[in-house]
Amino acid sequence: MNENIRVLLAEDDELIRDALVGLLERETDLRVVATARDGREAIERAVLHAPDVAVVDLQMPKLDGLGVIGELQRVLPRCAGVILTGHGHPHALRTALASGARGFLAKGAPGTALADVVRRVHDGQRYVDPVIAADALTMRPSPLTTRETEVLAAVQEDRPIRDVARELFLSTGTVRNYLATINRKLGAENRSSAYRVARENGWV
Questions:
Q1: Which CATH number fits the domain that encloses residue 66?
Q2: Are 148 and 182 in contact (CB under 8 A)?
Q3: Which phi-psi region, left, alpha or beta, contains residue 100 (left: φ > 0; alpha: ψ -120 to 50)?
Q4: 109-162 tens-digit pLDDT
Q5: Residue 18: which domain range?
Q6: pLDDT given for residue 36 in this prediction
Q7: What is the DSSP track for 100-155?
Q8: Contact 9/35 with Cβ under 8 angstroms?
Q9: pLDDT at residue 137, rounded to an integer
Q10: Which of 42, 52, 94, 164 shows a CA-CA span of 20 to 30 A to 75?
Q11: Whether residue 120 is found in the same domain as residue 154
């Protein structure tokens, strides 16, 4: 008989974490050997328990899911990583795959889907949520230049302009000019709105 697939589950929300553990442990071939509440704890538990598959939330305290997957690639290269997220934007998908993740699944997927993804990545396959994959393929290109993208990423929603100017070696007036152009291109009323539009479309 084959041994159970050993799984680490990292999720900062206790209710979601417990629910996911319950879903996985219903499967006779899966065993949750460790759980973690944040990214740093995930790395520590992974080193201690050597799971076959690590299922990690994209957004966690201390170290996000992408950081966890990247670190596990270094310290436990045989451990396959799956990103589980409630923020299934195409940009997050591309970033997750670039980090070394072998699976990418939205939290809203059917309960049996996670167990299936764990099995697939353990067998050396990749899995990408089909809805998110379709969105990534049809995503429109960014209207922003590289420099405009850099400025918007630095400003985000409410960071002081003087701090951004200092970081990017620009004058505050130049940063304001960039933001005005960005707002116009994205049809946004202000930089907070522009940043949200860009994030939702995977441009920053």
A1: 3.40.50.2300
A2: yes
A3: left
A4: 776 889 999 999 999 999 988 777 766 666 677 899 989 999 998 998 788 999
A5: 5-138
A6: 96
A7: T-SEEEETTS-HHHHHHHHHHHHTT--EE-HHHHHHHHHPPPP-S-HHHHHHHHHH
A8: yes
A9: 63
A10: 94
A11: no
